[in-house]
What we know:
- The chain has helices spanning 9-28, 65-86, 95-121, 152-160, 163-191, 195-220.
- By secondary structure, it is mainly α.
- It has a domain at 71-124 and 142-223: Ferritin, core subunit, four-helix bundle (Ferritin).
- It starts with 8 loop residues before the first helix and ends with a helix.
Amino acid sequence: xxxxxxxxxxxxxxxxxxxxxxxxxxxxxxxxxxxxxxxxxxxxxxxxxxxxxxxxxxxxxxxxxxxxxxxxxxxxxxxxxxxxxxxxxxxxxxxxxxxxxxxxxxxxxxxxxxxxxxxxxxxxxxxxxxxxxxxxxxxxxxxxxxxxxxxxxxxxxxxxxxxxxxxxxxxxxxxxxxxxxxxxxxxxxxxxxxxxxxxxxxxxxxxxxxxxxxxxxxxxxxx
Length: 223
């Protein structure tokens, strides 16, 4: 019997509903109405410069570079996970491995859509496709190569594997892939300021750590 799929659709549903509205506000050039509790900036006397506006608390700060980097890196990272998950059909005879692949698809496809909508609301174009990493895990200062991404050679081996050989390689690559996503999300939680991206990062950390434990359990099962 397959493990229950974690329910993680609430945040993604809200993101998909809110992002188009944000984009509409941005493109129209119309500023949203001021909040009732918004601070009022009083101009200085004639001949004096206006005082600087009060700074917003960090919790209310807008997106910073780390938030954008997180979304733009996680989208192609998720896309490669979807590609690997899509190979399970017809290559594995293990229903537990099939269940892992299904959870990857069900969880990460809507997250990609949500992050794409978030980027478009900022006026940015989501990255196309996905970049293949290297077989070593590296530091990943650029792109996603150091965050568990499979190389083209590894993907070729996965495409040609069948049965038990597929299961072993799939679990090895997907565990490494999930570990890389957790590291990316942890960086967002340390450096990011946008509430939406930080919430998604927290979901990635908690959800993918659970999946890593499940997959390691499958690796330890007798054949």
